Amino acid sequence: MKDLLQCRINVMVSDMARAISFYVDTLGLQLLNRYGDHYAEIQAPGLLIGLHPSTAKTTVGNNLSIGFGVRQFDQTIEELGAEGIHFEIEQDGWIRLAYFTDPDGNQLYLAENK
After folding, report:
1. C-alpha closest to that of 107 among 66, 73, 76, 77
2. Is a pLDDT exceeding 80 seen at residue 6?
3. Are strands 8-13 and 39-44 parallel, antiparallel or unpaired?
4. Any residues with CB less than 8 A from the CB of 111 and at least 6 apart, and which?
5. In a 3-state reduction of DSSP, which class is residue 107?
6. Which long-range contacts (CB under 8 A, 24 or more apart) does 51-58 make?
7. pLDDT digits (tens, 9 = 90+) for 47-83
8. Measured distance CA(6)–CA(22) in Å, rounded
9. Whether the Cβ atoms of residue 52 and residue 10 lie closer than 8 Å to each other
């Protein structure tokens, strides 16, 4: 894979506008491109997230997990909690994790190394 230019993960969504609002407005990521309701590209630090409508072959929810490493774990949880996001927090050895879901049930998490 010498010629690798970029990596992305595609997230299957049931409602493009709702998904864009969640990833951009709620999580604060950047919308790079939107191609109607067919596809959208969201930029996270070091990762391009593609939003794609679900089909009979691709379902939504719980097919992947996207992690976001954060510096201010508690503050980030507080800020996103104010946006209505609910977390399941756990300590796993040297890392703190806060699990949550997007509007389609895809699992995301915040991580802080300890």
Report:
1. 66
2. no
3. unpaired
4. 67, 68, 69, 70, 95, 96, 97, 98
5. strand
6. 51/10, 51/11, 51/13, 51/16, 51/19, 51/20, 51/23, 52/10, 52/11, 52/12, 52/13, 53/12, 53/13, 53/14, 53/16, 54/12, 54/13, 54/14, 54/104, 55/12, 58/12
7. 999 998 887 666 666 667 788 999 899 999 999 999 9
8. 23
9. yes
The residue type found at 90 is E
pTM to 2 decimal places: 0.79
The one-letter amino acid code at 18 reads R
More confident residue, 5 or 66: 66
Complete domains list, the chain, with CATH: 8-113 (3.10.180.10)
Strands (E), 54-87: 65-69
Question: Does residue 28 contact residue 79 with C-beta atoms inside 8 Å?
Answer: no
Distances (CA, A) of 28 to 21, 55, 59, 86: 9, 27, 25, 17
